[in-house]
Amino acid sequence: MSKKKKFNDRPFAYHQEIELTVSTLTNLGLGLGRVALADAGEERKWVVMVAFALPGERVRVRVYRNHANFSEADLVEVLEASPDRIIPLCPLFGRCGGCQYQNLSYGKQLEWKRTQVAELLEHMAGLAPEVSPVVPSPRPFGYRSKITPHFGGGRGAGDLAIGFLRQGSRFDIVDVPRCEIATEAINASLGPAREEVRRRAAGEGIERGATLLFRDAGGTVTSRYDEKVTEEVPLGGGETLRLSFLARDFFQNNPFILPAFASYVRDQARSGGARFLVDAYCGSGLFALASARVFERVAGVEVSESSVAFARENAAANGIANAAFLVGDASAIFSGLDFPGRDTAVVIDPPRKGCDEPFLRQLFAFRPRSVVYVSCDPATQMRDLRGFVAAGYSVAAVQPFDLFPQTRHLECVITLALPEYCQA
Fold this sequence. Notes:
Elements: E1 17-25, E2 30-39, E3 42-51, E4 58-66, E5 70-80, H1 106-125, E6 146-147, E7 150-151, E8 162-165, E9 173-175, H2 184-202, E10 210-211, E11 214-217, E12 220-222, E13 228-236, E14 239-246, H3 258-271, E15 276-279, H4 286-291, E16 297-302, H5 305-317, E17 323-327, E18 344-348, H6 357-366, E19 370-375, H7 378-390, E20 394-401, E21 411-417, H8 419-422
Parallel strand pairs: 3-5, 15-16, 15-18, 16-17, 18-19
Antiparallel strand pairs: 1-2, 1-4, 2-3, 4-5, 6-11, 7-8, 7-10, 8-9, 11-12, 13-14, 19-21, 20-21
């Protein structure tokens, strides 16, 4: 057995309680405050991170970890509360790690998310463009159309927890009989599914570390990973896009904000005067098909063959004839395209980790007229932004969308343009 790592007791002892004032929120959803320390006769400010503490609050906290230049602590007591603090809707808030902001009024959540995008742009990319106000979700609760509760394994129902990771833990699961950010249709399905899991656990046993899936498509919930589902996305002007995909596949999980989100991406891609569109992480075709009517031709590129098959099926189902979908080799993602870069806009919506270097090299070599970069992790987006600036692109617009109310997450759309084409 490995020896337990000794606690670093500098500058605070384990579980030492201290008081501090929270000055800001980090992009991880943590309250940040500073404590004065006397170091070699000089006073300096030491950063302390505290979950569920809000800006402006005076709090008492209990330190549980010291790092090289900051400490982490648990909230013990709010001594002076923020006027924006509210009572969380979910009784599990603070224990379940799924939400970070249920104790903060929704209007302030939006303000802080806008601030965090601006700070990331400045500190990670060295840029200070105007950041538009965050587009709010039409539903601050009951919006999430896909959830994946976890549970343990073995035999015996006992106190089997079926839910999500506990705040601050990588292994401990909090039992969640109802999720307030999930749709009502999902919550109606959650109870029977939990009973079935416990019945199986009491009988033949269940697989350790298993996961349930609930996907709500238009009020119909499936828990089968390989089941085909269909989502309708209104795009305005009487146009509605019908998209089919597998329940397990990636698809934006807030259908209520999706029409405004997809329409904005389409409009930004068209705003630079491009004639053609490439959707470089097209999945089942959301952005490519939502934009097809305003471009001469559209191409979607995706490394997943099954996703490309669905994109082609969706194009046919929606009567869209000017969109083609290609299975792209990661080493030559743009090689099958005959669009000239100067007349092309590219939409990219990469995974949370952002774009890898080989993809960016190919993108910059293709040199599209403009790029609409959609990201669920603004931190990796800002990291990639440095490469765009070095390649000659400038930021034309920054628009955050709150696809994930009550959590630290958001979606940010940054439009980039090549001045050489705009001036031509």
